Amino acid sequence: xxxxxxxxxxxxxxxxxxxxxxxxxxxxxxxxxxxxxxxxxxxxxxxxxxxxxxxxxxxxxxxxxxxxxxxxxxxxxxxxxxxxxxxxxxxxxxxxxxxxxxxxxxxxxxxxxxxxxxxxxxxxxxxxxxxxxx
Length: 134
Hints:
Number of strands: 0
Number of helices: 5
Distance between the termini: 33 Å
Largest sheet: none
Order of helices and strands: HHHHH
């Protein structure tokens, strides 16, 4: 892989890094909430400490992502993906049975994430420069 010093290449690298931070924020949030649930069932202060650290780290990663990504897009994807993933964790690890209403809500969240992501301008130079809008 060669280094391309052009501003467009630098912007692309920054956007890739922002998406990596956003994905990390989502995964860390889900880990924190999963530990919270386990700690509430099994007791123990250490689980809550892990939860607080994970949630704080998730916000740090989200903050790094919104340096480049529009805050509205990043937050919608972070929150919606987190809801969808923690629901799956709840079903598969904590044996929660989803009602029809919950399934419909989850499907709507996933569709919303897809629409928000599809609506974001992935290719323009202006999209990478203005992380404050959204």
